[in-house]
Amino acid sequence: MPANSPQVPQALVDAAWLQANLYAPNLILLDASVPPVVPGYIPINSAGKFVAIPGARRFDYDKRICKPNSALPHMLPGPDLFQDEVRKLGINSDSMIVVYDDVGIYASPRAWWMFRAMGHANVAVLDGGLPAWLKAGGAVVPELVPELTAAAARGAFVAQLDPNLFCDFEVVLSALNDASCRILDARSSGRFRGTAPEPRPSVRSGHMPNASNLPFPEVLDGGHMKPVTELRKILETVAARDQKVITSCGSGLTACILTLAANLAGYNNLSVYDGSWAEWGAPSKLPVVCD
Predict the structure, then answer these.
(1) 166-280: same fold as 12-135?
(2) Which of 112, 142, 163, 161 is closest to 45 using CA atoms?
(3) Which of 74, 79, 221, 262 could staple 159 via S-S, CB 3.0–4.6 A?
(4) Under CATH, domain 12-135 is a member of which superfamily?
(5) Alpha-carbon gap, residue 89 to 110, rounded angstroms
């Protein structure tokens, strides 16, 4: 990476940092918003006119930058598809990427972790997302930057997949009784214990044996990530620093919020169960318990 290419200071940046670096020559700003499926989480753009942070481009991992023809939602695509799609967004291997969403911290951590899984460390989440940007008086525009389809505008991003950062059900199954691993489930307590219904039809209620429940709102404070000192205290109650932490949720989206929190708290051996409960809870022989 060129010596004069700015770097994100950590996995999370605030609105003040983004304002100071908005016109950095290698900055790529991505809007990764998706419709929330969690009660109480209302996208800021759903109640009024669409706005975006200047220069932002659409990063659609729900319908486009995902594994094609999968029965499971927004599964991680292969490196070739990922590379081609992000090149269309003008992204290079030396790009400094900041991802945000229109809720606060909701959809953006998954996009952050996807880039990490594809070998790109110079990427961060905007703390508080678009609401925090607006509260800080940041400028907005009425639309996102259109896709850069011209050959001269295409980026030269090179994807280098680290298969350990996302895992499948076989890895999770082998980790259930492994003392060196902890599985953290980001769903609500009711869904985890099987006392609240699952939003997806035919999906079983309950959780994986020996998994721990850490509902993702517990690491957040008003759409912002809690301070690192608090994150450490929260995470140390469910996982040791030397354990491998596998996060799961309903579909592999809010699991990435826990992964971001763990990264900020100093946990290094992290993986996201990509299929999450949409896969595990489907009718199968995979073990499910309720308590």
Answers:
(1) yes
(2) 142
(3) 79
(4) Rhodanese-like domain (3.40.250.10)
(5) 18
Q: Which amino acid is at 275?
A: G
The active-site residue, picked from 66, 167, 181, 249, is: 249
Strands 12-13 and 27-31 come out as unpaired
* CB of 246 closer than 8 Å to CB of 185: no
Question: Residue 290 catalytic?
Answer: no
Sort 202 into a burial class: Cβ within 10 Å, 0-12 / 13-18 / 19+: exposed
Q: Which residues contact 50 (CB under 8 A, 6 or more apart)?
A: 142, 143
Domain ranges of the chain: 12-135, 166-280
Average the pLDDT over each of 45-49, 94-98, 275-279 and give the range with the smallest value.
Answer: 45-49
Average pLDDT over residues 142-170: 88
**What confidence score (pLDDT) does residue 148 get?**
74
**CATH class for the region spanning 166-280:** alpha beta
- Summarised one tens digit per residue, pLDDT across range 21-53 is 999 999 999 999 998 877 677 777 766 789 999
Give the separation between CA 214 and CA 245, rounded to whole angstroms.
12
Q: Which pTM was predicted?
A: 0.95
Query: Over 90: is that where the pLDDT of 209 sits?
Result: yes
**Sheet strands (E) in 71-113:** 96-100
